[in-house]
Amino acid sequence: MTDTRVFHRSLRHTPSTAVRGDGVWLFDSNGRAYLDGSGGAAVSCLGHNHPEVRAAMHAQIDALAYAHTGFFTTEVAERLAERLVAEAPAGTSHAYFVSGGSEAIEAALKMARQYAVETGQPQRQYLVARRQSYHGNTLGALAVGGNAWRRAQFAPLLVDVTHVSPCYEYRDRHEGESVAQYVDRLGQELEDTFQRLGSDKVLAFVAEPVVGATLGAVPAVQGYFRRMREICDRHGVLLIADEVMCGMGRSGTRYAIEQEGITPDLITIAKGLGGGYQPIGAVMAQGHIVDAMARGSGFFQHGHTYLGHATACAAALAVQEIIARDDLLARVRRQGEGLMARLQARLGEHPNVGDLRGRGLFQGVELVADRATRAPFDPARQLHARVKRAAMARGLMCYPMGGTIDGRQGDHILLAPPFIISDDELDQLVDRLAGAIDDAL
Ligand code: PLP
């Protein structure tokens, strides 16, 4: 058991104590420096200790830290929503604020359901999502997620959700199958699933535009989301894009789904919204969803104590203003190319690196026992956990994970450094990562 009173993620091991942050660096109580190569869990988009974000939070706290939304709105929440709506895909009309990613998913699922009820479709109740996905750890979000390991022991508590295949080209596109044929196959699976459930009974299809926490930055192939959107439209099913990890500029555009040329009905965001300065997330809702509720019951039957928290909104507003002012999306694209080029140069021919992929500063490394057969390592080796320990020993934070591949664990490493990372820091990131992989093997 750990010797502290904090209920840590591990009850066997107390993590180092973080005491200070500066840009892409975190420092522990022993004075060791860690390059934040994963932004924590794809959170710290501006790096640590940004003076302007701190100042914005201080100013808000000095005026008003919090006001309950059952009584008041605040200027800062209104300004943040206005900015987010203006930057969101066309047709987005409102931002519903929550405290994080799981809460955003819960709110989106309930919004979808209430929309169905208020538009005279109360029979719509089935959710369809994808295997090897992650949408959060609360019970609704966990039910929608398709990470077998995270779900296993809680399965009896989870609502029934139908899971279809992810779009995972490296593993699942058959040899000789074109991208278009692969999209056809996945489209047919979704179509068949809707038909089997009764297409007028399906409520929503939930997917991450770039899969994060189960597969390590796997984007869909060209045309996949366009096809999924067409099928959802044909059956009156809402499309919920979960951009909690891949959104807010992380993939090189404000929303990852912009690169697919479609508009979801609801988009969930969190992590990079507040950049780690405060816990905050949101559901970005299209006008038709909000209008239906406005015309119907006139309210959304949901709500948490901390929704629209003024200090959290102040932090998020400052983060998003800085991203726009400093043109950081262009920087994400540029440094993202630099990161991929370095990964290719250093790990592209590595015998145990099967795939390098991702978008912007959201990239993944898939480790394999055999490059030719793409066979994963024996899950008992817990290679991803060993890479994490080896990386920390080398002063690097990266986000390794074991996803399930055909019922087996695969080892992936997610990289999501702050948007402000320099060329020299990218060199250090990839050097340390390559060293850590070899240490762990
Ligand atoms: N959705 C996605 C795509 C995520 O990656 C995560 C967290 O990693 C969540 C939802 C849950 O977010 P949170 O941990 O803030 O509840």
From TrEMBL:
GO CC terms of this entry: cytosol
Record key words, sorted: Aminotransferase, Pyridoxal phosphate, Transferase
Pfam families the record matches: Aminotran_3
CC cofactor: pyridoxal 5'-phosphate
Known pathway: Amine and polyamine biosynthesis; ectoine biosynthesis; L-ectoine from L-aspartate 4-semialdehyde: step 1/3
GO terms assigned for molecular function: diaminobutyrate-2-oxoglutarate transaminase activity; pyridoxal phosphate binding
EC number(s) on file: 2.6.1.76
Family as reported in the entry's similarity comment: Belongs to the class-III pyridoxal-phosphate-dependent aminotransferase family.
NCBIfam families registered for this protein in UniProt: PRK07483.1
Name listed for the protein in its UniProt record: Diaminobutyrate--2-oxoglutarate transaminase
Organism expressing this protein natively: Orrella dioscoreae
